[in-house]
């Protein structure tokens, strides 16, 4: 039996979120899965996500919201494509069939519709439906969390912030998981560049719930985006014991910690975190977040002149099975980093051609729609840079630089592409590009004053182009 603290049928109804099942056990398991999702944590005492997915199926095989949360979580993990993964595609179909064969609530019906749209890559429409649910049911945390993930994959920064702002007043502090909601709000504030406010809200949360890894992550972003390196290092160290238990996000928080070291030019310390935490966890979980972080980190170190070639080969073992996925462009460009780093031009070429093919007839899939306009030029720019054709890389990157936000991820994660453009401009033979490189560094300094990395690159640019 699942712990009595989780909500049963009656408790969900009392919150105006009735579930179409008579199984209290199924309702509690739904709550247990939702709680782990919000806390970014596989709770072993509950059997983790996988154990709960199996248990909820056994408790009530026809519980529609049980299917919505289990299949929905698989979809938002972006680790496999319904185009190629028949098991995932049939799980989506099964949920739709179940919903059509039962008398369920309008809210549950909307959940099924949103999940189905998301599975086809129609993220904007799925978000509209989750938002419709939230207008009527502002405490439906699953709708909010799924919308947050989809907005993140679309780089919809203001929506990340506003979707939480709209529901917060309807929540009471004694409601389950209330504090975690404020952590989500902090992240939305941060991605809207309201750094002081984001830090304040996250710190308020951490005073109450020190183990909210997402709020820690929000503060880590603030110090990264404002180049407060020493403050960031101190903060990560002093809170490590609290957030490392959130195994789903721990690797990402370690990645943020390592970014401070890269910013400082302490590459040894960064590599130590890469080896002992980021890559070790990435290999164990195969999670997309961990995989893109590992790729991005090696790519940044390589641009800084650090030799990481053996690590690329190991990382390619993790990324290669996803060569044909094309679930999100953001994942794709990170897999490309690994194939380029490992000098596997055949895989790089295959990824590019696969993306070009999907971009021809993208249908409702947002990521494939952007494939031709953003994805392909980004791929080509990275391939040109890898070949030493820096002027071509600049010419491909400049027209799309302000559209890269649509590829998803956070400002901190996308900064790798800003750095790529700066490095390409500095290394280009073209005098105009070299001047552009210095202009981009001046622009960077304006946004994050006193950044050691910017200073280093400026010194390098001046030395190169005397």
Automatic annotation (TrEMBL):
Matches recorded under PANTHER family: TETRATRICOPEPTIDE REPEAT PROTEIN 38
Family: Belongs to the TTC38 family.
Chain segments annotated as coiled-coil in the UniProt record: none
Protein name: Tetratricopeptide repeat protein 38
CDD domains: StaR_like
Domain of life: Eukaryota
Gene3D superfamilies, per database record: Tetratricopeptide repeat domain
Organism: Eleginops maclovinus
Keyword Transmembrane helix: no
Keyword Heme: no
Alphabetic keyword roster: Repeat, TPR repeat
């Amino acid at each position: 039996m699942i712990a009595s603290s989780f909500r049963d049928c009656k408790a969900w109804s009392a919150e105006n979120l009735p579930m179409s099942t008579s199984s209290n056990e199924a309702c509690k398991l739904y709550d247990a899965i939702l709680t782990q999702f919000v806390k970014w944590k596989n709770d072993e005492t509950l059997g983790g996500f996988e154990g709960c997915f199996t248990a909820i199926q056994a408790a009530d095989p026809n519980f529609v919201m049980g299917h919505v949360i289990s299949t929905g979580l698989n979809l938002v993990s972006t680790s496999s494509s319904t185009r190629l993964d028949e098991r995932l595609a049939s799980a989506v179909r099964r949920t739709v069939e179940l919903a059509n064969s039962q008398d369920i609530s309008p809210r549950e019906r909307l959940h099924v519709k949103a999940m189905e749209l998301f599975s086809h890559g129609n993220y904007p429409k799925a978000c509209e439906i989750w938002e419709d649910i939230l207008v009527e049911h502002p405490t439906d945390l699953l709708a909010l969390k799924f919308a947050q993930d989809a907005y993140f994959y679309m780089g919809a920064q203001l929506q990340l912030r506003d979707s939480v702002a709209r529901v917060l007043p309807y929540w009471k502090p004694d409601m389950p998981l209330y504090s975690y909601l404020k952590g989500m709000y902090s992240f939305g504030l941060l991605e809207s560049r309201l750094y002081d406010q984001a830090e304040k809200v996250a710190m308020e949360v951490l005073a109450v719930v020190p183990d909210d890894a997402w709020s820690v992550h929000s503060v880590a972003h603030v110090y990264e985006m404002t180049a407060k390196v020493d403050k960031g290092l101190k903060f990560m160290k002093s809170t490590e014991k609290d957030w490392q238990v959130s195994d789903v996000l721990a690797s990402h928080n370690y990645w943020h910690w390592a970014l401070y070291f890269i910013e400082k030019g302490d590459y040894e310390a960064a590599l130590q975190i890469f080896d002992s935490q980021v890559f070790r966890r990435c290999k164990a979980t195969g999670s997309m977040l961990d995989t893109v972080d590992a790729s991005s980190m090696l790519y940044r170190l390589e641009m800084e002149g650090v030799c990481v070639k053996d690590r690329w080969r190991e990382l390619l073992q993790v990324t290669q099975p996803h060569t044909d996925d094309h679930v999100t462009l953001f994942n794709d460009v990170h897999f490309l980093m690994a194939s380029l780093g490992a000098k596997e031009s055949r895989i790089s070429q295959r990824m590019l051609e696969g993306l070009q093919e999907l971009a021809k007839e993208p249908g409702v899939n947002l990521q494939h729609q952007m494939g031709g306009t953003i994805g392909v030029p980004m791929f080509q720019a990275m391939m040109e840079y890898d070949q030493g054709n820096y002027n071509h890389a600049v010419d491909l990157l400049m027209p799309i630089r302000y559209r890269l936000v649509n590829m998803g991820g956070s400002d901190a994660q996308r900064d790798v592409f800003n750095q790529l453009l700066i490095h390409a401009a500095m290394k280009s033979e073209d005098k105009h590009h070299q001047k552009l490189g210095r202009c981009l560094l001046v622009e960077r300094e304006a946004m994050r004053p006193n950044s050691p990395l910017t200073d280093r690159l400026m010194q390098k640019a001046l030395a190169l182009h005397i």
